[in-house]
Request: fold
Amino acid sequence: MIDYTELKKLSRSSAAGLKKIRLAILGDCSTQHITTAVKGFAITRGISADVFEADYNQIDAQIIDAGSELYRHSPEFVLFVMCTEKLRESFYMRDKDSRAGFAADMTLKITRYWDSVSAGMPASVLQFSFPYINDGVFGSFGLKEKSSFVYQLQLLNSMISQEASKRKNVFIIDINAVQSRLGEDKFFDSKLYYIAKMPFSLEALPYIALRTVSVIAAVGGNIKKCVILDLDNTLWGGVIGDDGLEGIRIGELGTGRAFSDFQSWLRGLRERGILLAVCSKNNPETARLPFEKHPDMILRLDDFAMFVANWEDKASNIVNIQQTLNIGMDSIVFIDDNPFERDQVRSAVRDITVPEMPEDPSYYVSFLKDLCLFETASFSETDAGRTEMYRQEAQRTSLMASYGSYDDYLMALEMRAVSAEFDSFHYPRIAQLTQRSNQFNLRTVRYTEAQIEALAHSDAHITRYYCLRDRLGDHGLIAVVVLDRMPDGALFISELLMSCRVLKRGMEEFIINDIVSIARKEGFETVVGEYIPTPKNSMVADLYTRLGFTEADGRFYANVSEFKNNKTFIQEELLS
Amino acid sequence: MTREEIFMALDEIFQDEFDDDAIHVDETTTADDIDGWDSLEHINLIVAVERRFGMKFKMAEVTDMKNVGEMADIIAERI
Reply:
């Protein structure tokens, strides 16, 4: 870890060409050293922090006064540094009968700080967690005694977490992780606290600055999205090509437990929305073997967005992975036990992060977690789902590359579509699609949910929605058709739209075939289509002529008895 | 470690902390003699000296020491 003196020098270095951010630091203790460390560390991440540092213990004054330096600085980030020592002082100043309510009162005070700042300006609020101190007054019994300091401290940390989770712009920075990493003796120097009110030792500051800057960068959108992994001696001990399935160390065999734990950590990242990919110098069948056959493997093939095993150089493979996933190289981390491979990738691939892994695999996880690579500023359940779609799309792209022709690829996708009349379960999605689709939309008629429901019950109309899935995943409801029964005995396509997600899959062919087949069943002789141009829908200008309709007088006609079905590889799936 | 060696090590520490290779300290050097030696830098120096010599100053010594000579006295006593 870079030391404080280095950070101090960096903090004074030139900011030319760096990304600028405005930060305010407010504390109830001495914050000069923290300011210096954060500024210095930010430089190492390409960020120049313009910092307003409030005077010692001026939080209230700065926040209450609407014309204060804090607001005039108009920071994008406001960092609150409150120390446990100060907390303890105010805890013991209280009447002992009211101490059980201490954490709740402090939480109220702190959330008022956050909310005042948020009301006054559009800033992200950063709050240091309170480092752990069991002051020994109750000993371990304090952990079950509500009126003890240690009990209230634990409660406070948990309460501010709860409050932060209700506020999208508030982020807790886990200072306790630094404390437990370094140990209390290295984290805090009571001499420095008493002399200068310094809440952290100089040794702890670089670690604290790392955490702080990582959160600032993540809030600014600088996050990692993908981990590319080597296999032999990275995900398991030994070499699968030499040692064979029974010989590699994973699970209970030898040092295998360390690799199992590493895999389960990676799986946690995957479930959180980080893409995993494999890049290994191996025969593809050999590389896949442990994932398919080894009972102790935690990661399975479907945990990976891409699986690249060949004998080409890793840098080219990584560029291929990056292009297929279509994410920035600066959002990718490459993990390999081999220093030679790491160097090759580092020198050949710009902007990728390549951690200098420890030689001993038992330290893989603790080493990586200390790097704070995977900070994020948001998480929702849909993140994991969106990742799944990413993965499927990547697999489709790589599947496409592996087939000789596009038709072979479409066939291999094993696509199945549902064609069904509007039903109440799907009204919202159908209405949403009519409102949002612009490009693949022939007449751009917008419908509300109520209008969709009316169409569903109308005898004058035939309605259809379409869902598509393939062997790699489900696209959901992606197309909508409304057909009008005309008095002259023709069937008029008054709505035809499709989501662009499923372009070039043969879905439009499937839909047109389906419409003609409906007309046939219903006894119509002619199907009539219309294209109403908008600035955005030129992609479907020739749709009808391309798919077997004949143009006349600005409309498009298909004769049902003479119509030849368009080629498509999509099978119809009947709803049960 | 001789007193001369202690001062040589102190020179290095001061030069590094103040980012100035021209700095030389002696028995009588005080905070007034070095540009930028304020209370903040004093803490940085104390921590750097403690780390370099593997010793600890007492709280009162940190605030009471009057010149680099006194600092060297304490170091000599503890290593």
Observations:
- The mean pLDDT of chain A is 93.
- DSSP finds 23 helices and 17 strands in chain A.
